[in-house]
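tool=predict chain=A
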Amino acid sequence: MTGIAILTSQQDAIASLIQIRSRALSAKDADAVADCQSPGFVCYSLAPPLVSTGGVAELESWFATWDGPLGYEARDLVVIAGEDVAFAHGLVNMSGRKRDGYAVDMWFRITLGLTRTVAGWKISHEHDSTPFYMDGSLRAAVDLTP
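tool=predict ok
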């Protein structure tokens, strides 16, 4: 993860959690990803459905669509934290090869909502998005880079 400005111990703990989650996604470790999430986690991800709960079975199913390693790097992350609630936003580069041979190398935006639990900071909400071309085509702008 690059571009992180850490101002408080809360932000440090949150940045660490996001790094752990990024490594778990790259390793396609569904249990480790789920361990970063709070009970009641909700995700508005790039892929259908409109709302996901990010359970282990759902993650394993998604990981199975990738052939080989999955690149997942967060950067330009900004973390704002209160005592028990925080949010983070930044950019993610996801890369790899899908089982159908399609090569993925795209940037998208991520916003995470976090809550502090007795087990520490956990991600309670994730929202991923890509801009789309406003030329009438409604094509996702997956060719953009920071």
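Confidence is low (pLDDT under 50) at residues 1-6. The CA atoms of residues 56 and 78 lie 27 Å apart.
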